[in-house]
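Q: Phospholipid phosphatase, please. Structure only.
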Amino acid sequence: MRNKHALLVNLILSSFTFVISSSVLLTNQDTTQAKTQSQAKIEKLLAPHKADYGYYVDQYLLNRKENTTPESNPATALFTNTFAKYWRSDGTKLNPQILQENIDKSINISKNLTSAEQLRSYITDRQDSPYDMIRGLGGYAEPFIEDANAKTLFYNLPTSELPADTKDDPSSGIVWADEKSQLGDMVNLVDTTALWYYSSSGNAKKYYKYIRPFRQDPRVQVNPYLKAAFDATPQDDYDFPSGHTTQAWETGLSMAYAFPERFQQLVTRSSEVGYDRILVGRHSPLAVMGGRILGTAVAASVLNNPQNKEIAKKAYQNAQSVLLHSKVTKSKDDYKNYQTNLKNFEYRMTYGYKPIFSSTQRMRVPKGAEVLLQTRFPYLNATQRREVLYTTGFKSGYPMGQDPEGWGRLDLFKAGAGFGSLLGNTTVNMDAKRGGFNASDIWRNRISGSGSLIKKGTGKLTLEGANSYKGGTLIRRGTVTAANQHALGSGSLKLADGTLRLAAKAVNVNGNYTQGKDGVLQLDGNQLLNVMGNGHLSGKMVINLRSRPTKNHILMKFHTRSGKFNHVKITGKYGQYHVKYTRNYVELVK
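A: Structure for Phospholipid phosphatase:
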């Protein structure tokens, strides 16, 4: 474990490199000028915004118990543009409406919990926070517990209400997991991120002194097994920001860095811990949103510190070599439904608050935040990962989304699903030999923007969203799978090399379709590639006849076609079919 008095490290963002294209013929001088102008514009969009305290990733080691004020502690200063505008530490309500809504939301959430939520929120309260995050690993949870020698005393509801003298930190003295275990390097990264002085929410709590919701209004329903214990806690045991939520995000993002195969599930569980704190009656929505912001900033800070580079590297290698190859158990995975995770996560970004500031403020990506996606998108560079965060950021205007750097608007669930928009020509170079996401990945967002997608390398990229990016798609190598009718955006497509595979009944190309001699189009006998513009054909077509196709089925439709495939391969048990070319179609006929 590193020295906790480590010097602050100045972090330098990677230089921005973008390739900008033009739809018109330009001279070399004009092209260079266009690139410079476009590059400068994109650099301005992605550049970090410096707060009064500087950048959190540079200042995080100042979050110490002797520092509590915004002038001395970045963890407190994070909220000067948000919570500090609603509440003052002397008890003054600067925005009574927002604060009353905060308590009203606490009341409504805490009184409508299900029996499953009562159990889960109780366990969340009692278990050590890092241990509690293990459930986000789903089927890998049991192998992790075994290989990390993880321990807890709490699994079920007690038989009766806990006594008033119950410890507020019930897991004290129990090591949640073993740094000397088979997964010790992964455990070490979590410990380095979540269990050191700089990870604490306590210093900000001492400054803001915001009263717990169950003490503000008796209608807030406290978990009946914990009421006596909660009532007995000191009056200076404050609400904002939530410590459990802060530690959940620190732990969840550390685990997600080491094991990005569960990235979105782990951030979903991190957000659910905050919800559990409201369910149990312990915290308010503003407090758990504050915990998300602080925990995210801490995790990015630790991962950016060069002194932790080896710890992070070993954690990733450890998880990939041990946990990834564990026998996945059949235990219930509470986070297997993508749409449910998305719905829950998006709600917990705001807890139903309406915007109170401008809803058109440009997104800001904090300095160093791109490191959170480093293992999730290993084939993207740092600038591209910033672009992912920028284009998936949550809309502006909400009560906890106005911090100066932008931590409050990072939507890490959507960021885990790829770009939200292509700002410029985006080159994706995936090397299948490296395995993992380099070999195969899925982008699930609806991608907009004026840029283009250029696919290089041997890996496979699947596009699941109803995309509208305008710059077109160029496949130079590897495989692009179109799993949505609008997966290929609203521009043209050029298949120079590699493979385009259709995984939807019909896939549109809104512009022209050009296939070179080294390109391969792969589709089933009942699918359609619908080209709105002109088509020029060459290369190879592979048709998989898994079932009997409809009579004279149209495989490709064009405004006007030129050229033919050099080779057509038909697989499956209906090999008696062949293709027929017309001016506007490629048909499958007997």
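A: Brief note, in case it's useful. The chain has two domains: 73-411, 419-589.
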